[in-house]
C-alpha cells in the first residue's frame, strides 16, 4: 500500500493527540490537526486563532440557516473546508495522519484508510488532564465532559454514525490498559500488519 491514511478519533484525556504524533513520527507522515486550521485561515483571510475558536465545534442551531446551499454558520463552513482539504489530500495520493475531523467517515472510500479510536478510563483521563493542564480533579472532570460533549455533537451533526461507536472504526483501543507508549507500539504493529496485508493483495 503506497498510500497510508491514519485517522485518529479520541476521547479527551486519552492521549489520542500524543499517540497520533508518535505514529506520524514512526511512519514519517505529516500530521494534520492545527495545520488544517492554518491552511483554512489563509484561505479565509482570518487568523489561526479566529479559526480555532470554531474548529470541531457544533454550530448553534437557532442562529444558523442555509441559503442557496451555503450556510451562514462559520462553524459549518470551516468544517466543510476541512473535510474538503483532507479529501483533496487523500485523492492526490498523499499519506498522512489526521486527528478528528470526522475523517473515519469522510475518507472511508479510500482503501488506504486505517481508522483508530482512542478511549480511556475516566480516572486515568482525569489524572492525565490534571497533569497536562494543571487542574484540580473537579475541573479536570468538567473539562473532559465539556470537550467530549463538543466532539460528540460536532461528529454526530456531520456524520450518520455515532462518535465513538466501535463499528465506525477499524480498531478502538483503551489506552489506559497498556499505557500510552505501549499503546503506540501496539498500534504501530497493527498498522504494519494492515500495510503488509494490503501489499499481499497486489
Descriptive key words:
single chain, 202 residues, alpha/beta, Rossmann fold, two-stranded antiparallel ribbon
**Number of discrete domains:** 1
Compute the average pLDDT: 88
Give the count of helical stretches.
Answer: 9
What is the first-to-last residue Cα distance? 9 Å
What fold name goes in the CATH topology slot? Rossmann fold
Describe, in plain words, how this protein is organized in 3D.
The protein has 202 residues and is α/β, with parallel strands linked by helices. It has a single domain, classed as Rossmann fold. Helices cover 55% and strands 13% of the residues. The chain has nine helices and seven strands; from the N terminus they run βαβααββαβαβααβαα. Strands 2-5-1-6-7 form a five-stranded parallel β-sheet. Strands 3-4 form a two-stranded antiparallel ribbon. Strand 3 and strand 4 form a beta hairpin. The longest helix is centred in the last third of the chain and has 22 residues.
Brief summary of the model shown:
This protein has 202 residues and is α/β, with parallel strands linked by helices. It has helices at residues 16-26, 34-44, 48-54, 74-91, 103-106, 122-133, 137-158, 175-178, 180-201; strands spanning 5-10, 31-32, 66-67, 70-71, 96-99, 113-119, 171-174. Strands 2-5-1-6-7 form a 5-stranded parallel beta sheet. Strands 3-4 form a two-stranded antiparallel ribbon.
SSE blueprint:
Layout: E1 5-10, H1 16-26, E2 31-32, H2 34-44, H3 48-54, E3 66-67, E4 70-71, H4 74-91, E5 96-99, H5 103-106, E6 113-119, H6 122-133, H7 137-158, E7 171-174, H8 175-178, H9 180-201
Parallel strand pairs: 1-5, 1-6, 2-5, 6-7
Antiparallel strand pairs: 3-4
Amino acid at each position: 500500500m503506497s498510500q497510508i491514511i491514519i485517522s485518529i478519533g479520541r476521547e479527551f484525556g486519552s492521549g489520542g493527540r500524543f499517540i497520533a504524533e508518535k505514529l506520524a513520527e514512526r511512519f514519517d507522515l505529516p500530521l494534520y490537526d492545527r495545520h488544517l486550521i492554518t491552511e483554512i485561515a489563509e484561505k479565509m483571510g482570518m487568523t489561526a486563532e479566529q479559526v480555532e475558536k470554531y474548529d470541531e465545534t457544533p454550530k448553534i442551531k437557532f442562529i444558523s440557516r442555509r441559503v442557496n446551499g451555503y450556510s451562514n454558520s462559520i462553524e459549518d463552513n470551516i468544517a466543510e473546508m476541512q473535510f474538503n482539504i483532507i479529501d483533496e489530500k487523500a485523492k492526490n495520493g498523499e499519506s498522512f495522519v489526521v486527528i478528528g475531523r470526522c475523517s473515519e467517515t469522510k475518507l472511508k472510500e479510500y482503501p488506504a484508510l486505517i481508522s483508530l479510536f482512542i478511549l480511556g478510563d475516566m480516572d486515568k483521563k482525569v489524572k492525565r488532564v490534571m497533569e497536562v493542564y494543571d487542574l484540580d480533579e473537579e475541573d479536570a472532570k468538567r473539562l473532559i465532559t465539556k470537550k467530549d460533549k463538543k466532539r460528540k455533537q460536532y461528529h454526530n451533526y456531520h456524520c450518520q454514525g455515532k462518535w465513538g461507536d466501535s463499528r465506525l472504526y477499524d480498531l478502538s483501543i483503551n489506552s489506559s490498559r497498556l499505557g500510552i507508549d505501549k499503546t503506540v507500539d501496539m498500534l504501530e504493529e497493527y498498522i504494519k500488519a494492515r500495510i503488509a496485508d494490503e501489499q499481499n493483495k497486489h
